[in-house]
TrEMBL record:
PANTHER family: CBBY-LIKE PROTEIN, XYLULOSE-1,5-BISPHOSPHATE (XUBP) PHOSPHATASE. This is Haloacid dehalogenase superfamily, subfamily IA, variant 3 with third motif having DD or ED. GO terms for molecular function: hydrolase activity. InterPro entries: CbbY-like, HAD-like_sf, HAD-SF_hydro_IA, HAD_sf, PGP-like_dom2.
Length: 219
């Protein structure tokens, strides 16, 4: 048996710019005179964790900010954007997912975002449902964020899969580090705002192709 492990919601649909817009709208809602422009945000994405990103930014500016509250507002705004629907799956994602399932492999979403974000994503992408995944790992299951390998370790144990028989797809450096630390071969699939990052992955691709998956995941 083999497993295809999608490491974040932006490996399914590129939501990175929606995330940035939601951060900026949350800042305005909390009367913060902040605005994260594209280049600055791209640099921030070299690390993981939205609330930590807010806290670090506040500390650098010498401001006392309730990072958890700002992040909660950002998450609500982001989910509203996802809920409008019309999201398009990234190139080759649905084909690779179906190929893996048809070949008898297992498919999982292995993220440390909130379960609400996962549900909103799936509802926003046509031709996708939670039932397409054999397992969903989110922040309600694993509290330790990437690059810690805990999410992947949990997924492998729950699926009954060996790391050597799995392949992960990640769109950010911390995700690649998480998968690699768990012993899982990782394809880097950069999103709009992580393209150009130095991933250190087995391969960097601009689309998923079922033919590039391990034999056990090819229909």
């Amino acid at each position: 048996m083999s497993a295809l492990l999608f490491g974040s919601i932006s490996t399914i649909a590129d939501t990175s710019e929606l995330q940035r817009e939601s951060f900026n709208e949350a800042f305005a809602a909390h009367d913060l005179d902040w605005r994260w422009e594209t280049d600055e945000y791209r640099e921030m994405l070299r690390g993981n964790g939205g609330a930590d990103r807010i806290a670090g930014y506040a500390a650098d500016r010498g401001q006392d900010v309730d990072a958890a509250a700002v992040h909660a507002t950002k998450s609500e705004l982001f989910q509203q954007k996802l809920g409008r629907g019309g999201l398009t799956a990234r190139p080759g994602v649905l084909e690779s997912l179906r190929s893996a399932k048809q070949a008898g492999g297992k498919v999982a979403l292995v993220t440390t975002t909130s379960p609400e974000n996962v549900v909103a994503l799936v509802q926003g992408v046509d031709e996708l449902s939670l039932s397409d995944f054999d397992l969903v790992v989110d922040s309600s299951v694993v509290s330790t964020s990437k690059p810690d390998p805990a999410a992947y370790a949990y997924a492998l144990q729950t699926l009954g899969e060996d790391a050597a028989e799995a392949v992960a797809v990640e769109d950010n450096v911390g995700g690649v580090e998480s998968a690699t630390a768990a012993g899982v071969t990782c394809l880097a699939f950069p999103n709009t705002n992580t393209a150009g990052h130095d991933f250190g992955a087995a391969r960097v691709v601009d689309r998923l192709d079922p033919a590039d998956l391990p034999t056990g995941l090819q229909a």
